[in-house]
Design a protein that fits this description.
- The complex is a heterodimer.
- Chain A has one domain: Methane Monooxygenase Hydroxylase, Chain G, domain 1 (Up-down Bundle), CATH 1.20.58.
- Chain A contains six helices and no strands.
- In chain A, α1 runs antiparallel to α2 and α2 runs antiparallel to α3.
- Chain A starts with 11 loop residues before the first helix and ends in a 19-residue tail after the last helix.
- Chain B is globular.
- Chain B has one domain.
- By secondary structure, chain B is mainly α.
- The chains are: A mainly alpha, B mainly alpha.
- At the A-B interface, α1, α2 and α3 of A face α11, α12 and α13 of B.
Chain lengths: ~220, ~375
């Protein structure tokens, strides 16, 4: 407690990085549980309870990160300034990944079930790809690996136009409205999750003033 | 991967922890040499000069105002109190006259966080919290002085207790000296600088040089000690302040004490609290005990200076500073009915200040510049 003063330990920035990784892992867990619901599991009280609990942990961790960064900025205003500002920004992105995972569960809650879809495997492929993207992003961020971040960002880039194409196809489909809505929201949420995960990675490679522009049109993006 | 600061250390742009630690020890040594040179300079200038210098502060209120103004000018009570310790150590400034100056330094040091709080003036809610946190320190110190200074003048209770403590710990009596473990080493460094001034023909001019070098060394070394220590223990400060975020009372006092002892400046500790309170991370009531702990922690610098002088009277005035701050806390903090009186008064002042923000600037200038200046001019 107070005698922590005499103990050694990690710097605040290192602590914050650990917390961001833990938040991402929680968001990943929520993503998986929500996807299980959408792909056959359906809504359940235990899933809802688990998602809520994990989401609360993510929210509390976000507040802790903000407090820690404010403390760090007050005690050492010029030390790690870029990291402090970047993490203050990207902690919101990490929290949003968790939120969109919850939104995916809402699809199951409203009755969406992709197990009966003709293109089940096509839809499931995106679930797996984005799941792996989150896993890889966690590892790249944990290792503070700029090269890995650049590679992952380039990989994620390919998905954006695919997501938009899928939304457009659902919009123009002649199928039932419930299916079109479910598909539109599914690809929309996946796009948002991907964008927020990539925003986290841009903190490793992009200048501070260009954070958060990842999902903009290509011309507006920063050269990484 | 490394953080920015770790990269800076590796590239040689920034000092590593151990190097900074050694640097702090060297600066601490130079600080003590500065106090010793100040003593030598004062002694060399002779009694005529010093009598004139301190004639004006024989009035205790004038002494109090000198303490406030001097601390406001150098923005550090540590510089003021260390200089006072040096002066008392030479015998030219009696302990009785130095006590009000020490108390004034306590009030003067709060100007720094009040100025920091003015930085939040554009955001009313933030400013209200920041200004309350800053001025509660003013009110606490003013109340403590208002009660303890008359008590000291009537009974010499505070300096008497300090003398008793000093004589018990160090042995010897007032006007004498004690065996300080570092006195010899400090004397060696000081005499080395004194020898460098061998080319000066006049003893008085040489003494004036020593005085100037001494004051400059005290000021500069304390500035750099504070800067380096702040970097050196930044993580520890953050951890211990985090521990005090949601707690009140003793934990806060101990955290304030430890942080201030580490950075050798109560202004740094209390100024760190202002943005935390302004942003709402730290409640004013939880910042309050940290501020009180800082009051005690800052007295360590004068105690170190006294070790360098080796004079019983110098140590007595340094201990007086500690006793005064401890008594100030015991006077107000343990009693529930008056514990938060400084916070309440500061809150009321902040309420007025957010309605008329120019009053906040006016308060700072009046409290820390106009009143002490007028007081010195009238009372000397």
């Amino acid at each position: 407690m107070v005698f922590d003063f005499f103990k050694g330990g990690q710097s605040t920035i290192e602590e914050v990085e650990k917390t961001l990784v833990a938040m991402m892992q929680n968001a990943r867990q929520n993503y998986e549980e929500a996807m299980d619901a959408v792909f056959g599991g359906g809504k359940s009280k235990s899933t809802k309870k688990g998602l809520k609990k994990t989401d609360r942990e993510i929210n509390l961790a976000q507040q802790q990160v903000r407090r820690d960064l404010m403390m760090h900025a007050s005690v050492s205003p010029t030390m790690d300034l870029a990291e402090t500002l970047a993490y203050m920004s990207v902690v919101k992105d990490v929290e949003r990944v968790g939120d969109y995972a919850k939104n995916l569960y809402d699809l199951a809650k409203f009755g969406a079930d992709f197990t009966t879809a003709e293109d089940f495997e096509y839809l499931a492929r995106y679930r797996d790809c984005i799941g792996k993207l989150i896993d890889d992003a966690i590892e790249v961020f944990r290792a503070r690996d700029p090269e890995g971040a650049r590679e992952l960002i380039a990989e994620a880039d390919k998905y954006f136009s695919e997501f938009d194409d899928n939304v457009k196809a659902a919009f123009n489909s002649d199928g039932p409205a419930s299916d079109a809505v479910a598909r539109t929201l599914y690809f929309r949420f996946l796009k948002r999750i991907t964008a927020h995960v990539m925003n986290l990675l841009t903190s490793l490679v992009a200048p501070i003033h260009r954070l958060d522009y990842y999902d903009e049109a290509k011309d507006d993006r920063v050269e990484l | 991967m490394e953080t920015q600061s770790q990269v800076a250390v590796r590239r040689g742009l920034k000092l590593s922890g151990p190097v900074r630690g050694v640097l702090v020890f060297a600066l601490l040594y130079l600080f003590l040499v500065g106090v010793k040179l100040l003593e030598s300079g004062i002694e060399g200038l002779g009694s005529g000069f010093t009598d004139t210098l301190f004639q004006g502060v024989s009035n205790p209120l004038a002494g109090l105002f000198v303490g406030i103004l001097a601390t406001v000018l150098v923005q550090s009570s540590s510089v003021t109190t260390s200089t006072i310790v040096g002066l008392v150590g030479t015998g030219v400034l009696p302990v009785a006259q130095a006590v009000p100056m020490i108390m004034g330094a306590n009030i003067g040091t709060t100007v720094t966080n009040t100025i920091v709080s003015l930085g939040h003036i554009r955001q009313s809610e933030e400013f209200k919290r920041a200004f309350t946190a800053a001025t509660m320190h003013d009110f606490f110190n003013i109340i403590a002085v208002a009660v303890l200074l008359p008590l000291e003048l009537m009974t010499r209770a505070i300096s008497g207790l300090a003398r008793l403590i000093t004589e018990t710990i160090a042995g010897g009596v007032g006007g004498g000296s004690f065996d300080s473990p570092i006195k010899g080493a400090v004397k060696w460094g000081a005499s080395w600088i004194e020898d460098l001034l061998g080319w000066v023909n006049s003893d008085k001019v040489a003494a004036a040089f020593l005085l100037i070098i001494g004051v400059a060394l005290i000021f500069l070394t304390l500035t750099f000690i504070t800067k380096n220590m702040r970097v050196l223990v930044a993580d520890r400060i953050e951890r211990s302040l985090n521990a005090a975020l949601s707690k009140s009372g003793t934990v806060g006092i101990i955290v304030g004490l430890l942080v201030t002892m580490a950075v050798q400046s109560s202004s740094i500790t209390t100024s760190i609290l202002i943005p935390l309170v302004a942003s709402g991370i730290l409640l004013v009531r939880n910042a309050y005990p940290i501020t009180l702990g800082a009051n005690i922690g800052t007295t360590v610098t004068a105690l170190l200076a006294a070790l360098g002088t080796g004079a019983i009277d110098g140590l007595t005035i340094a201990v007086t500073h500690t006793v005064f701050n401890v008594l100030g806390i015991l006077l107000i903090y343990p009693w529930k009915k008056i514990r938060y009186l400084p916070v309440t008064l500061a809150g009321k002042l902040a309420d007025i200040a957010i309605r008329r923000k120019s009053l906040a600037v006016g308060y700072t200038l009046t409290m820390f510049v106009a009143i002490p200046l007028a007081g010195i001019l009238i009372l000397r």
